[in-house]
Amino acid sequence: MMGLKNRQSNDVSTGRTGRFNLITDVPGVQVGHTTIDDGNVHTGVTAILPQTDNVFLQKLPAATHVINGFGKSAGLVQIEELGTLETPLVLTNTFGVGTALNALTKAMLAQNSDIGDTTSTVNPVILECNDGDVSDIRKMAIQETDVTMALENSATQFEEGAVGAGRGMMCYDLKGGIGSSSRLVDVDQQQFTIGTLVMSNFGFLRDLVIAGESIGQLIFDYLKQAEKKEEHGSIITIVATDAPLDARQLKRLAKRASVGITRTGSFIGHGSGEIVVAFSTANRVAHYPQNNLESVIRYNDDKIDQFFRSVVGSVDESVRSSLVHAESVVDRKGKLRMSLPAILEKMSQDETINHELITKVQQELGLI
């Protein structure tokens, strides 16, 4: 399968992509997965390392934005209050939050002998979506070793789709999961990068929009399946940049993620958890500062629109990328949860379907 990562976008409306078209195009950012497939358990862990240096000692400016707060994440309150990130970010399923919190805490203790002894405690950041439709979430399969493995496996290139924490996730009633993208922003002879990563687990099939086409409605009619009555899904979005943005500006950046999400068709339902965390690798905040007064370079608010535009385009593509790279999975009840590429391929062979529209969408997604 080709997919979006084989195309480098130069569309004025969304901007140019980075080298890998992944969040890891932001220098220093790495991502790792642990995927669990065992009988009726389809789940996992995804870890995002925000920098290669010790993030507890060199904290990063950060912000969080809760679009709709039906979620059980950990660590967001302190980010909101202090505007800094001091640990990696771990994504998992809803019942894995406590285990992931303990595992990430232990990893930080192992790296920093002063935590909880001669200095403060630490604020691990865990984000979740409920994969209980596909996986037997009651088994609470996530172990601390799964988190440790994801952290240790982190790299600049990583898989997308039904992997890691995204293994059991559904997006627009199709197989979803982990998706990522990046955009380049040119400023005064300098180049900055915006990178996003999503864990997609939301949406009604008939609402899905790709290339301006209501492809979800066409698929919904083709499958003749019953529509779910309520939206209980979620999407976690991570935004990273190397641009010198402070916590207030990062919150503004995080808010624009909702535009990218809704471009794909979401209306952000009552029972859906949409949470965004944004951080910058510039202007690090020392845990042990040498001076009481600090000088930082901050981007001009009047010129920030190009970053907003880039976030919207990157999040939009990240959602689509989670659909494109996901594989079909048999869920905990034995039902096949089909991927978008598999359905489009099946529909392209049906003579009763509008092949022109299917081809347009496949081309937009880089499938043909």
TrEMBL record:
Query: Which Gene3D superfamilies does the UniProt record give?
Result: L-amino peptidase D-ALA esterase/amidase
UniProt superkingdom: Bacteria
Q: Which GO terms describe its molecular function?
A: aminopeptidase activity
Q: Which InterPro entries match?
A: ArgJ-like_dom_sf (IPR016117), Peptidase_S58_DmpA (IPR005321)
Q: Which CDD domains match?
A: DmpA (cd02253)
Q: Which UniProt keywords apply?
A: Aminopeptidase, Hydrolase, Protease
By sequence similarity, the record places it as follows: Belongs to the peptidase S58 family.
Q: What is the name attached to this protein's record?
A: L-aminopeptidase/D-esterase
Q: Which organism is it from?
A: Secundilactobacillus oryzae JCM 18671
